[in-house]
Amino acid sequence: MSKDYYSILGVSKSASDAEIKKAYRKLAAKYHPDKKTGDEARFKEVSEAYETLSDPEKRAMYDQFGSNYQQAGGGGFGGAGGADFGDIFGDMFGQGGGFGGAGGFGGGHRQARPRKGEDQLIRVMVTLEEAIAGAERTINVEVGHKNSHSHSYDTKPIKVRIPAGVTQDQKIRVREKGHQGLNGGPNGDVIIEINLQKHKDFRVDDQDVYVDLPITPWEAALGAKVDIPTLKGTVRMSIAAGTQSGAKLRIKGRGLGKTPGNQYVVVQIHTPPADSAEAKALYEQMAHLMADFCPRA
Question: How far apart are CA 37 and CA 263, in angstroms?
Answer without folding.
Answer: 70
